[in-house]
Write a structure and sequence with these properties.
The chain is an alpha+beta fold. 37% of the residues lie in helices and 24% in strands. The chain contains 2 helices and 3 strands; from the N terminus they run αββαβ. Strands 2-1-3 form a 3-stranded antiparallel beta sheet, covered by helices on one side.
């Protein structure tokens, strides 16, 4: 009887440990990339990866920032009012 209880407790601990390890392996959710208050975004490419900044009012303003960088400007895919 004692060995059955011990096996049951060990099984519960194993399942709980695997569940906990699974939670630790889940990457955090990224914050919203696109700022809906601004209609133009820039995507800048670097050796370490890329970054997106949606803080521009016009394509010309974005293009001035992008000049000389490995970057591109585009219309914000999530502009204000798109969700309504």
């Amino acid at each position: 009887m004692r060995s059955i209880v011990r096996r049951f407790i060990n099984a519960i601990l194993l399942v709980a440990g695997l569940f906990g390890a699974g939670l630790l392996g889940v990457p955090p959710t990224a914050a919203q990339t696109y700022d809906p208050r601004h209609p133009v975004c820039i995507e800048i490419y670097t050796i370490d990866g890329r970054s997106i900044d949606c803080s521009f009012a016009t394509i010309a303003q974005c293009a001035a920032t992008a000049s000389g960088q490995s970057a591109q400007c585009y219309a914000n895919p999530m502009p204000r009012g798109a969700d309504s």
